[in-house]
UniProtKB/TrEMBL annotation, chain A:
Keyword check for Oxidoreductase: yes
Protein name, UniProt field: Peroxidase-related enzyme
Keywords associated with the record: Oxidoreductase, Peroxidase
GO MF terms held by the record: peroxiredoxin activity
Keyword flag Oxidoreductase: yes
Cross-referenced InterPro entries: AhpD-like (IPR029032), AhpD_core (IPR004675), CMD-like (IPR003779), Uncharacterised_peroxidase-rel (IPR010195)
A Pfam family reported for this protein in Swiss-Prot or TrEMBL: CMD
Gene source species: Halomonas icarae
Annotated Carboxymuconolactone decarboxylase-like domain residues: 55-137
Superkingdom per UniProt: Bacteria
TrEMBL record, chain B:
InterPro entries documented for this protein: AhpD-like (IPR029032)
Domain of life (superkingdom): Bacteria
UniProt name for this protein: CMD domain protein
Length: 192, 176
C-alpha cells in the first residue's frame, strides 16, 4: 500500500478510492451517458468512476464545475483557484489543495502565495486583495458558514465587484462540494 | 450602465435564488446572476439530481429531504431550512424519520443504517476535515450499498454547496 499524504503540498498525489470504481465494461447506459461528459482525451479517473455510481448527479457536475472555474469575465482564473484552495485548506482536502495550488502557481508564476497559505492558513500575509479573498473564502467554508454584510463589504473595499464576488462564492463553495467527495470517498497517496 | 435584466424572467424556478430572496434581484446583483445564469441553471439541475432523482436508489426522496433540512439548520440558512421543511412535508415521511430533520436528534439505536447515515451527514457537514476511511467502512458495515454511499456523499456535498451560495446571496441581496 502506498503512503497516505497528510501534509499540504503542490505535488499532486494519486487518489485511492475507498469504494469500487464503476467498471467501464459493465457500466449501465446511464453511467456511460454520464461518463461521456468527461473529457474524452484523458483516461477516466478512478474518482469520476466512483462518482459514476450516481450518474444523474455526475452528468450535470462536469458542466457546472468547468463553467465555475473557466467561464469568461468576472473573477480571474487565478483568483478562482485561490478560493478553491482556501476551501480545500479548511476542509483539509490534500488532493484538491495540491491540484489547485499547482494551477494557481502555473497561472501566476508565483509560488510564494500558496506556500504562505499552506504554512499560515487564514493568517497568511498576502497583498490586500488576495488577503480579502482568502479571509472571505475561509470564513465561507467554515460550519456554519461565516458571511455577513461586513465580509461582503471587505471584498468591495478590496475592489471586487458583484460578479467577482459571485464568482468567488461559486468557486469556493464548489470546492466545499468537491472536498466533501474527494476527502471522504478516498484518500491521497504518494504518486508512483 | 443601467441594468435592464430582471433575474425573475429567467429564474422563477430556481430553489436557491428563491430561498436567498434574490430571484427578482435587479441592479448589479441581478446583472451578475444573469451573467452566470447557465451556472445557476446547472445548480438547479444538480439540486434535482440530489434531492429528487428519477432513480433514488436506496436513499428515498423523503430521507434526502430530511437530511437536507438537518444540514440547512446546522448551517443556519433560514431560506433553505424553510424550503426543505416544506419539501419534507410533501413527502409524507414517518414521524421517526421526520424527527431527524432537527440537528442532534438520533435514530433509534437498533436502526444501524440510519444511525450510520446520520453520523456521516453530521461529520461531513460540520467537520469534513476529520473524515477518515472508517467513516465509509461504518456505512458499509451497516449494509449500505456502494452506489448508495456515493448518492449519500453527493447529497451532503451538494447541499453544503447550495447552503453557502444561498448564505452569500442572501447577504448580497439585503438593501444597503
Amino acid at each position: 500500500m502506498s503512503r497516505v499524504i497528510r501534509k499540504f503540498t503542490t505535488r499532486v498525489p494519486q487518489w485511492r478510492p475507498h469504494l469500487t470504481p464503476v467498471d467501464l465494461d459493465n457500466a449501465t447506459p446511464a453511467q456511460r451517458e454520464a461518463l461521456k461528459e468527461t473529457p474524452s482525451n484523458t483516461k477516466v479517473s478512478d474518482y469520476v468512476l466512483v462518482l459514476a455510481h450516481d450518474p444523474e448527479s455526475l452528468r450535470i457536475r462536469t458542466a457546472l464545475f468547468n463553467g465555475i472555474m473557466y467561464d469568461p469575465d468576472g473573477l480571474s482564473r487565478a483568483e478562482r483557484e485561490l478560493g478553491a484552495v482556501a476551501a480545500s485548506f479548511v476542509n483539509r482536502c490534500i488532493y484538491c489543495a495540491a491540484v489547485h495550488a499547482q494551477r494557481y502557481n502555473q497561472l501566476t508564476g508565483d509560488d510564494a502565495v500558496m506556500q504562505e497559505i499552506f504554512f499560515h492558513g487564514e493568517k497568511a500575509r498576502l497583498d490586500p486583495r488576495q488577503q480579502a479573498i482568502l479571509r472571505f473564502a475561509v470564513g465561507l467554508s467554515e460550519c456554519p458558514p461565516k458571511v455577513g454584510a461586513d465580509d461582503i463589504a471587505s471584498l468591495r473595499e478590496a475592489g471586487l465587484d458583484e460578479l467577482e464576488i459571485l464568482d468567488l462564492t461559486l468557486a469556493t463553495t464548489l470546492f466545499g462540494w468537491a472536498n466533501r467527495l474527494m476527502h471522504t470517498l478516498g484518500e491521497p497517496v504518494a504518486a508512483r | 450602465m443601467t441594468s435592464s435584466f430582471n433575474a425573475a424572467d429567467s429564474t422563477p424556478q430556481h430553489v436557491l435564488e428563491q430561498a436567498a430572496g434574490v430571484a427578482t434581484a435587479q441592479g448589479p446583483l441581478g446583472d451578475a446572476l444573469a451573467r452566470r445564469q447557465a451556472l445557476m441553471s446547472r445548480t438547479q439541475a444538480s439540486y434535482e439530481a440530489a434531492l429528487l432523482p428519477e432513480d433514488p436508489g436506496g436513499l428515498s426522496h423523503a430521507e434526502r429531504a430530511v437530511l437536507a433540512c438537518r444540514m440547512a439548520r446546522v448551517c443556519q440558512q433560514a431560506g433553505l431550512t424553510e424550503h426543505y421543511a416544506a419539501l419534507l412535508a410533501e413527502k409524507d415521511a414517518a414521524d421517526e424519520l421526520a424527527a431527524l430533520a432537527t440537528p442532534g436528534a438520533q435514530p433509534p439505536a437498533e436502526d444501524a443504517r440510519l444511525t450510520a447515515i446520520v453520523a456521516y451527514v453530521d461529520l461531513v457537514t460540520e467537520s469534513p476535515r476529520d473524515a477518515s476511511p472508517e467513516d465509509i467502512q461504518r456505512l458499509q458495515q451497516a449494509g449500505i450499498a456502494e452506489s448508495d454511499i456515493v448518492r449519500l456523499a453527493g447529497l451532503v456535498a451538494f447541499v453544503n454547496y447550495q447552503l453557502r451560495v444561498a448564505a452569500v446571496l442572501a447577504v448580497m441581496g439585503e438593501p444597503t
